[in-house]
Amino acid sequence: MKQTNFYLPTIADVWTAAGRIYPVVSETPIVASPLAAKLSGATSIGLKLELLQPTGSFKVRGAANTILSLTDAEKARGVITFSTGNHGRAVSYVAHQVGVKAVVCLSKRVPAYRVEAIKELGGTPVVHGASQDEAEDHYAVLKEEQGLVPVVPFDDPRVVAGQGTISLEILRQNPSVDTLLVPLSGGGLLSGIAMAIKALKPSVRVIGISIERSPAMLESLKIGRPADIEEKDTLADSLLGGIGRENHVTMELVKRHVDEHVLVDEQDIEEGMRYLFHQHGLVAEGAASVGLAAILTGKVDVRGCNVVMPLTGRNVDIARFLSVIAKGETR
Fold first, then answer.
1. pLDDT at 1
2. Is 0.85 surpassed by the pTM of this model?
3. Residue 5 domain flag
4. How far apart are CA 236 and CA 39, in angstroms?
5. Residue (of 302, 210, 313, 221) closest to 264 by Cα position
6. Which of 18, 27, 179, 243 is the most buried (most CB within 10 A)?
7. Same domain, residue pair 18 and 39
8. pLDDT in tens, 250-285
9. Do 216 and 243 contact (CB within 8 A), yes or no?
């Protein structure tokens, strides 16, 4: 992925994003989860409902900040991205809102319902390769061949700054927050949230939640460069994929600003999904459930803490979701 406009975004970039994105992005509420607080010993647990965004996930923030910052000449060329689904939806949605062509490269591992959703939102999906990295390779080819403007899923300062606007909302809605639990894959969400919250309230403890079946950022941090991770089927399919063939932004920000890391497995994720459905009536995808999964299974200590976690998306295959719910009811 050859791109030259890399820099580490700051809180100033987040404020700029906040002044740009809200014509197409919603400010999402935080709802309390008293049972989770009681079970974990937390003072409070708040769920920030990013799954209420118009595309069903937080990804619209970064996509909006990037696309709305393009020049008219860049918009006329059209945009291209690679995605496991939710970023592709977001790019398709925002591009359609402003009359821009959008091409989305996806691997064969991306569920068919996500590919169809991209079409419905006005994007052009291109399915290629057996992994996120192979989809990224094809994206690089098409980008050059067709002269399209890249809108990458995570490793871009504009995307990171857009995701960081979540921290501005959290501090405004719940100024007593002292702990954040954030899903981690390529790091766009976690790095943006962590960078922004540490700039405004450095005492906040930031915990990244990765899945055992694709801990790409954790493995990359261990070896000091982007790691090749075998992709396996998971309920948290939005967290599949590596951190890019190269990584210029998110890995460094995660290293600087994230205090702890936790791994959750498939059974943990199921518990989180069932809790959100039974206690809050929410249909949440596996990736959105990893924070609660870590709390409910005791993998993170939040005793006495004021916790907030973003519920990152609702774009789940409904048959698979119902299977998870039914599985819990037969135990």
1. 41
2. yes
3. no
4. 24
5. 210
6. 243
7. yes
8. 999 999 999 999 999 999 999 999 999 999 999 999
9. yes
